[in-house]
Amino acid sequence: MNKNQYESFILRPAEKIFCVVMLFYTTGAVMPFIVGEADPQSPTEMQPVEVAVKAILYSVAFCFIAIRWRHVIEGARNIKWIVALVMLAIASTAWSQDPSLTLRGCASLLAITAFGVYFGTRYTVPQQLRLLAWTCFLVVSLSFFFAIFLPKYGIDQDMHLGAWEGAFAQKNGLARVMVLAVFVFLFVRPKRFHSLRWLGVAASLALLFLSRSATGMIVCAGLIAMLPLYGLIRSRLTVVIPVCVGLLPVGLLLFLNFTTAEAFQLVGRSPDLTGRIDLWNAALLSILKRPWLGYGFNAFWQGMKGESASLLLTIGWPPEVRSGHNGFVDLMLDLGALGLATFAVGYLMVWRRALGFLSRVRGGLPVWLCTCLAFMLLYNLTETSLLAHSIYWVLYTSTAVSLSPASFRQLCISANG
Fold first, then answer.
1. 164 beta partners
2. DSSP letters of 187-251?
3. 83: closest CA among 345, 413, 328?
4. For burial by CB atoms within 10 Å, which of 42, 289, 381, 387 has the most?
5. Under a CB-based contact definition with an 8 Å cutoff, are residues 175 and 215 in contact?
6. Which of 85, 95, 210, 223 lies closest to 155, judged by CA?
7. Ordered alpha helix ranges (H), 267-318
8. In terms of Cα–Cα distance, which of 133, 132, 191, 124 is closest to 413?
9. In the 8-state DSSP scheme, what is residue 162?
10. How does DSSP assign 309-358, residue by residue?
11. In this structure, are residues 180 and 26 in contact, taking their beta carbons and an 8 Å threshold?
């Protein structure tokens, strides 16, 4: 077997299968049931099974990255602000309140970012969507399986009685992946059985509804509402400006006719966002103690140790809490104003490229990339997925790579093809 035959019949299929496995792993599905619950006394400690799985997967990922190392390095050079943010996270070891936690977090961050760059350089956007569709298919199928046949694990029996959790440890984890799945199935263009994607959309929406996650439903509705706006952006300003001017009075009337309490009552939530407002107020006090550089990447949330103990005692939350339920708050806690500014500059630059692509190229691919960026923003308002070891950071990194100047020509070819 020569080199071309080996790549066609063995390497390429193996890469695709591994990418689906890796993407599935980064969704956070199933692993909580394998690993078990974290020790409340040591919420930052990783279980041996989790360490072993992560080591095996990233060892294989390194092999695939090494095969295409030139493309990966070139891709990393085109996302300088993301690389700068990762470098800042590594540098934060010097001022971290727990350097060992920061080093461990940086190892995971480097690995997940490298995989995101590899994913963005190895596959075109249509290919990425097809691999994501397979990943979402696995998550949706397993979530129905857990909820129907293993309801002890798949349906909440405690705090949110009756809410579906599927293959996740918590209902919000299921809802977040389902919001992503809705748009993956909406934009994917499979080579065969095109109508099956609508079944995927319906199944994802059903699981989102059954999760009873207000955040998920609001974000999904917001992303759907934004779809017509992308069409307006493609139009001339003579169309965009009158439409926006016409919508502004409507929005003001809706706002004035509902009090804040009534608006939250519509989605079955309290005005304090289930305690998040108190959490953010307490986090702000911690941020003000180290406003510029933060407490070190991955080093703030340590249960009843360090500064997080003071925060949790203030609001009376349990030591198992591991995030500020806001990606930007957590970024400030970890890397301070410098980290937030670095992310913001990079994010806005990626948006500028996405809008440029949207205005030049017809079809669904530009809209999908814009949706990924909007998803990243909206979900981090009440949850955390910035610099997290998750599929969402993989998607953000691969989106930035796909929109880089070096990839723009190939992106246009994919869209027109």
1. 155
2. H---SS-TTHHHHHHHHHHHHHHHHT-HHHHHHHHHHHHHHHHHHHHHS-HHHHHHHHHHHHHHH
3. 345
4. 387
5. yes
6. 210
7. 276-289, 306-315
8. 124
9. T
10. HHHHHHHT--TT----SSHHHHHHHHHHHHHHHHHHHHHHHHHHHHHHHH
11. no
Please give the Cα distance from 87 to 82 (Å, whole number).
9
* pLDDT tens for each residue of 304-341: 888 999 898 888 888 878 899 999 999 999 999 999 99
- Which tokens belong to 383? 């949850």
Q: Are 86 and 109 in contact (CB under 8 A)?
A: yes
Question: How far is residue 298's CA from residue 105's CA, in Å, rounded to a whole number?
Answer: 6
Report which of 54, 183, 200, 205 is spatially closest to residue 128, judged by C-alpha positions: 183
How close are the terminal C-alpha atoms of the chain, in Å?
32
How far out from the chain centre does Cα 383 lie?
Answer: 10
Sequence-distant (≥ 6) Cβ neighbours of residue 55 within 8 angstroms: none
Q: What single-letter amino acid sits at 249?
A: P
Q: How far apart are CA 38 and CA 82, in angstroms?
A: 30
Please state, in angstroms and rounded to a whole number, the distance separating the CA atoms of residues 187 and 262.
Answer: 35
Name the band, by pLDDT with cuts 50, 70 and 90, for residue 258.
very low
Length of the chain (residues): 417
Can you say whether the dihedral through the CA atoms of 198, 200, 203, 205 is positive or negative? negative
pLDDT of residue 42: 56
- Helix, strand, coil distribution of the chain in percent, nearest 5: 75, 0, 25
Whole-angstrom distance, CA of residue 302 vs CA of residue 288: 19
- Asked if residues 406 and 78 have their Cβ atoms less than 8 Å apart, the reply is yes
Structure tokens at 278: 């108190």
| Integer Cα distance of 162 and 143 in angstroms | 14
Closest CA to 296 of 105, 116, 137, 118: 105
Per-residue CA distances from 215 to 171, 316, 318, 328, 379 (Å): 11, 23, 22, 16, 8
Type of residue found at 330: D
Count of CB atoms situated within 10 Å of the CB of 46 = 14
pLDDT tens for residues 177-212? Answer: 999 999 999 999 887 877 889 999 999 999 999 999
Cross-strand bridge partners of residue 155: 164
Quote the CA–CA distance of 133 and 190 in Å, as a whole number: 9
Phi, psi of 118 (to 5 degrees): -60, -45
Entry pTM: 0.91
